[in-house]
Description:
This protein has about 400 residues and is α/β, with parallel strands linked by helices. It has two domains: about 5-180, Rossmann fold; about 190-405, 3-Layer(aba) Sandwich (Rossmann fold), CATH 3.40.50. About 35% of the residues lie in helices and about 25% in strands. It is built from 14 helices and 20 strands. Bound molecules: cytidine-5'-triphosphate (CTP). Cytidine-5'-triphosphate (CTP) binds near residues 279 and 339.
Amino acid sequence: MLQAKTIILGVGGGPLTSAAIEVLRALQRAGAGVRVVLSAETEAFVPALTFRSLAAGDVLMPDDLYGRMGAQDFHSLRGLVRNADGLVVVPATPALIAKAAASWADEALVRAMLLHNGPTVFACAVRAAEYQHPLVQQNVQRLRDAGVTLCDAGVPETDDSADELGWRMASATVVEAVAASLRQTTVLSGKTVIVTAGPTQEPIDPVRHISNASSGKTGFAIAEAARQRGAEVVLITGPTHLQTPVGVTCVPVRTAVQMRDAVREHFAAADVVIKSAAVSDFRPATVIADKVKKEDATLSIALERNPDILAELGALKGRRVLVGFAAETRDLLANAKQKVSKKDLDLIVANDVSDPAMGFASDHNRVHLIDAAGRIEPLPVMSKRALAEAILDRVQAVLTQRQGDGA
Ligand code: CTP
């Protein structure tokens, strides 16, 4: 199941630390090479020697690395993390979950997680009552939003059932979660994904423009999630205040025409194009060279049509998977369905932008997905990161089917 894969096992410290020994063995049985990073608390529960003897010396101790990590130590940590296919934390205690969510990198285990740019699984070992606490749930959500898979293998049904020797973590469940997170990456690994994001700005004069409302958050979340699934990502974005996700190639543009040219330039190499940008359909017919003065009581601006980038791509798409967005204020599903067929899309994300609580600047969204066959799938309210994952799941399904068809 994990033949020739390299997995980093981060071992937390708590009553379920011994489960990490079983997980280590189960990962090795599944064919993985395992490198171990111990947390500051591990040895209070299980001696480091146990892991050293099982992981053929590939074990990093917290002592030398704790906090004040010198250049040499950082080098060894980087060496250990390099080229790893996945990382799993067992047991993920509330303290480790909180540290990771805050990227509080005062120990090697958290630093390893920050350096590892791939699938990451937290096998939670948290008592039921604590797990439900809103602060723990917020940390869990933060990790999910960063693309981490949370597996509940060590969350007991009730805390009574966790007493004495009754609290266990099934290693098979953890290994399956690791394998699933790696499978998720393989379909998009090495594929090239173009994501467009943000608004375009169409200049009126040197200081004014017309534009669409768009924060760019959804597009940036998709770019980050696709990168974490192993894709080469080109993010072509209009002006936003967002930070480019690590490992993503960013092509900043301003106008719709610039966005079209950038998309066309990268289109030949692309396997997937996701057009989340809010493109201005119109631009001023002429850009006034000097700043317009306010002497006149009124001002008319003649507008002309911008290219419909997505429709142009639909005609050229070949085997590529094409995803569009539809921002509507009424007749959401009918309008969105029409765009699927008109622009020859594989999927459209239909977004009712009349709800002020959702969309644009919000961190959450509620959308419907519509596929090429016109099947409608309503999604619940979810974070933009979770939406990104849902969209990529559907994209992967289309890619897999297309590969199967040989189409
Ligand atoms: N789009 C595009 N080029 C444009 C306008 C839109 O590529 N000039 C893309 C958007 O990125 C989005 C999809 O088309 O993925 C739908 O955008 P939307 O503004 O909802 O619809 P339009 O196609 O512009 O249609 P209308 O404005 O008539 O609703």
